[in-house]
Batch of 4 targets.
Target 1
Amino acid sequence: MTLNIANLANGSQKSFSIDDERKVRVFYDKQISDEVPGDTVGDEFKGYVFRITGGNDKQGFPMKQGVLVPSRVRLLLSAGHSCFKVRRSGERRRKSVRGCIVGPDLSVLSLVIIKQGENEIPGLTDVSVPKRLGPKRANNIRKLFNLTKEDDVRKFVIRREVTPKNADKKPYTKAPKIQRLVTPRTLMHKRRLVTVKKRQQEKSREAAAEYAQLLAMRQKEQRERKEELRRRRSSASRNSVSKQ
């Protein structure tokens, strides 16, 4: 079984191939998100505590959280489920996934270091992998550099150097486009939208008042016609009675 161990503290990751089944037997019957001590795995892992985050069986089917079986099952998956990629709106598909209980049929088991032991693991705990990309959102950049809203966020964007494949060209730097950045242009657009919305509301109020006035006038005319018709009928009935 291959143990894919990740160290979230420094961003490093390393795979260890373990052929002795007795060493990995401590992971059997454990579920995803369970914490397991690594003392029995090897002397270099003494004192370490790992958390199981996933894995794949020997045919490549991924483990799915919440499926409490140590084997493979077929589930009807839809949007929002793990191990499923939506290709059409409203699509559902029956797919084979591996249960979240660890067993001997797994080929790769993904682990995360929760507690570091006494000894350093070469290539895993003694190195530091810097992040390739910095934060993109304006508030996240402010949080990273402890900035205030008065500071210009554009001066603190983390740029990365790109080396072109062509040796004749000079290397250049790239920076992400800052998201949710409040600029005078965005404020102008916001003020314009508010103004347009107020105009539409005022226009709808005027139209509603005009319609109500027209409706009241039509109802008044209709009442007057009914009264006139009633008077004519009453006068005609009186004239017919007087003639008799």
Note: The chain has a mean pLDDT of 90.
Target 2
Amino acid sequence: MSQLKEYSSFKHFLVTSPSEYVAHVEINRPTKLNAFTEEMWVELGRVFAKLSHDSEVRAVVFSGAGDRAFTAGLDVQAASQGATLGHTGEQQDGARQATKLRRNILEFQDCISQIEKCEKPVICVMHGISIGLAIDMSCCADVRICSRDTKFSVKEVDIGMAADIGTLSRLPKIVSSISWVKDVCLSARNFGADEALAAGFVSQVLETKAKAMEAAIKLATVISSKSPVAVQGTKELLNYSRDNTVENSLRYTGIWNGAMLQSDDFKTALLSGLKKTKPRFEKL
């Protein structure tokens, strides 16, 4: 697994390449259970924005360093000492204080949403403690895989707030049962890997973190061998259809493919199928 030099300046994330055209982004704060500070989520947004336009990357695996946690969520101690939770120490009227907090929340949301906005498919691998922000971030991913020891929780109500970084907006669109969503969000209770699989939150449960990583890298390698025009188009169209009507989605698909079917990838893939050869696609 080689380190990607273009990403070596990032302080809180290790970015490596386990196979051709695959990037592995690893949260690197294991001594603090990979809990997030403001500096970390700003950097996360920059990492995924860079990956989105990197022609050397066609699929991304996202995980957490260490054996104990994918992430314990927000570093509440650090947040309570700054402006993240609205405690600036300044005496201001309600409207001005609310404006500052709203801007902070929107910036936080935008950083985490870069995972979803990334043009490349993102496979999230969770293990151990995976609470709070872990759910926000994994909801942004395209595929979720976990190890059997994973302990999930939408934890925000236990710290006196409604989740505001994406879980309440995305989770109901990921799983089919709104009853289950409200169960776990309102109670902040823990749930395990088998329950997450049964609810449709994850698509695979592996016995260990190592096996989950192996499965994720294998899937990412398969995806990265496909036409990047086709793969990135498929992600774009699936995300669009999730948030729009069937009629609008069909129209958007027609416009999208009206341009993208002019790619040589379409011909290359068809001919390789007829000749039973492995196709090679140009970088995108």
Note: The mean pLDDT is 95.
Target 3
Amino acid sequence: MGYHFIERTAVPAWGPQQGEPLVAAGTVAGAMDASFSNTSTLEIFRLPASDDAAGALAAAGQAEAAARFQRLAWSAHGAQALGVLAGGLENGDVTFWDPQAILDGGKDAVLHTSSAHTGAVCGLEFNPQQPGLMASGATNGEVFVWDIVSEYKSHAAGARSSRMENVTDLAWNNQVQHILVTASNSGALVVWDLRQHREIMALNSAGNAIGTARAGASAVAWNPASATQLVSASADDNSPEIQFWDLRNANAPARTLRGHQRGILSLSWCRKDAGLLLSSGKDNRTVCWDPAQGEIVGELPPAANWVYDVQWSQANPNLLSGASFDGRVSLYALAREAPA
């Protein structure tokens, strides 16, 4: 297993490009290092071609950000050579950058900034089928859709859902391009039809049992091979579970995956292989599941603190990342590539 790391407490995003692997990292909100600096930086890193160079990576380029990052996403779409980077910031801003300009020194790297949200932007993702569209979710149940082709215009996904408080995560359906799901600290998972501009279904991930108290949904992800299946996670230490939902019967989860000892903070379902689901959490672990069987099939080396973000690479399913409050973003290659 090849291993590199970025010595930052940061939110990462894998580049969508085939070929040279690139990773962006933005200073994460809610953490402070020994310098007590409140600055925020967006950096891009290149992974070396050889595993022999495993170790800490140096930034290939950087740009300053107005606030710290809750979410970071990278799309191949756009007139820019390396696409577009988008950041959801703790102050409610959504900012778009030119990755090539960051690599060229950071001058004129910002393409657009909007203060459409009133609070921290904790959900952010580009549409996998229409990479010119992006969704963002924030406090007060705000959900917006952005068109980076039409001068970064945005509009609400629909009327605000009464079932949601603060959006904690969101995900585009991998099969039906106008379907979006949002997770909330209220425990509700709301499914949106963006053609109709309204919510069409709500799932109660917080449980229905009388007298139970469970934290809201911390993460959500669609099955890349099925339009009706998704998973959600709970950050509650008393019920660190992944719930597997099939919308053909949304009255209750089809199954529950248990294996973490403390609350789960992040999910990532491999778009190249639906049999691989990653989860990470407050127990400092990153676990790989076979979601169809509900079984753990592997685990990464544990971190020294919470692993708050886990991601498969967009372009290469052999690559993944885990970001921890121990001040490190760890980058893994699951198998060494044979020399040409």
Note: Confidence is low (pLDDT under 50) at residues 208-214.
Target 4
Amino acid sequence: MALTALIDSSLLEDNFTIVPRLDRPSTYKDHQYQGSTTQWDKALANTATLYVGNLSFYTTEEQLYEIFSKAGEIKRIIMGLSRNTKTPCGFCFVEYYTHSSALECMKYVNGTKLDDRIIRTDLDPGFREGRQFGRGRSGGQVRDEYRQEYDEARGGWGHMRAKQEEERRIQQEESYEAISTVPTGAELQINSRLGRSSPGYRNGN
């Protein structure tokens, strides 16, 4: 009997994969959260708020309402903004009226595409004034400070890379020397290659 149970257990392990719950929050904890880990976990267990990331800078609040309202009635959406320019910088907070709606969103909206980007949702303990602004040195999100790839939907280069590209452009302009005079004999060679017999050809002679 014990052998049969062992074989059955082995077969289960070989043929079935345990799928993690889609409404389970990530292990991320906001480093600016003032409470303990226990308080954080308790807040997530009752929250009706979601953090949404990896958005295009051009995604509108109307688009977000359209997709997130499929999981439940929305109380409000707070767009993430650059601290300096006050323009969208790729994240938002979605507040539902119930915890169950937030869980439904985690299950059915997380990982879907919006403006050709895979959006990420996570349970959040609750929005507080000031959290709508990016925490990066340039005013946007920290992730965009050090991003090396070019991402048109998130403002092009990451902030540090954009600064490097600008410095490289300035160096190229400073090192470039425009040719102000044509070296002796060069004009004759050019005319010869173009099939012109003499410098006077240029004047129509």
Note: The helical segments are 2-15, 37-46, 61-68, 99-108, 143-146, 159-175, 186-193.
